[in-house]
Amino acid sequence: MMTLRLVSESSAAEKISGPMARMALFAVAVVAGLASACAPENPRLMAPPTTYAAAATEAKPQVLNVTPMVDILMVIDNSDSMTDEQQTLSNNIDKFATGLAKNSNIDFHIGAVSVWDTKMFQGMTKDYGQGELRRLKGPDGKNLPDAFGRFVSSREDYDSYLAKQNVSLKKEAGWLQVLKASMKIGVESYNPKHATEKTGGPEVEEIFSPVKAALSEPMASSANLGFRRKGAHLVLIFITDADASVRNADGTSFDISSGELQEFLRTTVGQSYQDDVSAIGVLAKSTDDPKERDPAIRHTTLGSTEPVNIQSFIRDLGGKWMGLRGKDYGAKMAELGSYVRSRTLARPRVDFEGATPEWGTITVALNGEDLKLGEAWVYDDVRNSVIITRDLSGVNGAIDLKVSFTPILGSSVNSGRVHTPGTAR
Fold this sequence. Notes:
Blueprint: H1 9-15, H2 19-38, E1 62-66, E2 69-76, H3 83-101, E3 107-114, H4 118-121, E4 152-153, H5 158-164, H6 174-182, H7 194-197, H8 209-214, E5 233-240, H9 258-269, H10 273-276, E6 277-283, H11 308-316, E7 320-323, H12 329-346, E8 349-351, E9 363-366, E10 369-371, E11 377-380, E12 385-388, E13 401-405, H13 410-414
Parallel strand pairs: 2-3, 2-5, 5-6, 6-7
Antiparallel strand pairs: 1-13, 3-4, 8-12, 9-10, 9-13, 11-12
């Protein structure tokens, strides 16, 4: 640090004479002038007064009302061998729905797509594209207005529309009547003249490729818009008498493989897709009459007599399957509905959209009861979400789940109240 010592004009003159004295006196005068100019007593050179506004120091707590969500995609075989099976599905889908929605407020979407045949359908004009959700139908078999979308929703008011159509709602709710009618997507018989007539159903059924197409562009933002929701558990249901990804005798194959579908799910859903996706099947069994099974799994000379590729995919996701035909069909459908319910409620995730919570401000309550961190929920700082670890499927009655938190502000960053990702919690 430099220190400047000033001396008076008189003392300077006493010690220095001649030109040196005049130079010294000039320097002293300059320094004195600068000091005087910078002094606060000079109002012309003072900075204008600064006015500071009061800044908020605390963010307001936010409360999220959480409803467990599930998106159910049914892949229904519409080949000509499935006429009776589609009717059986329609007759028993209420048991599945009851098992799913029993004593809970699960927010569900249920949509249906048909199987596909890339080789046969190439260049053909089809009413529905690959992975395109089917139109919803009323009890009379006619399509519902486009405003209802392509999937049955627990939040849609079907009752008012059906009441205007003079449909009785005394025995079954409107959404259930629409669901039962919509499961009968119809069948397309194989037509050997398809090359010229451009008509006909699938000859070799693709089961997995319609799933990828349904959840990808262009379908995801066009015909299937709104079906898939962030944070909703995804359920894939395969209903067929055939198998997926069958390899032909010449080494060629159709459909995508189980591994390719899982890789697609890993890419689109996330690394933990096995927690966020469930798979179930209503499939042919080896004990079925050979005439009621697809040729690819009909004879032992062609390989397995069961859909082993679909079974493998379902097994990898920890899912379940039942027989396509059987006296216990209705009871098994109810079991599958309960299974989907338990999977939906097992580890629901609550995403903090557009906000990051201050650490220590998150609270979770179930039906008014505060849940403890580490025992019933955890915070995932990678996804910025709360994961409910308590199994909610055992809750008897409606599920009222609330997550409250205080979002991070600049003031909380400066005060050190922000949790650093990756550290212990």
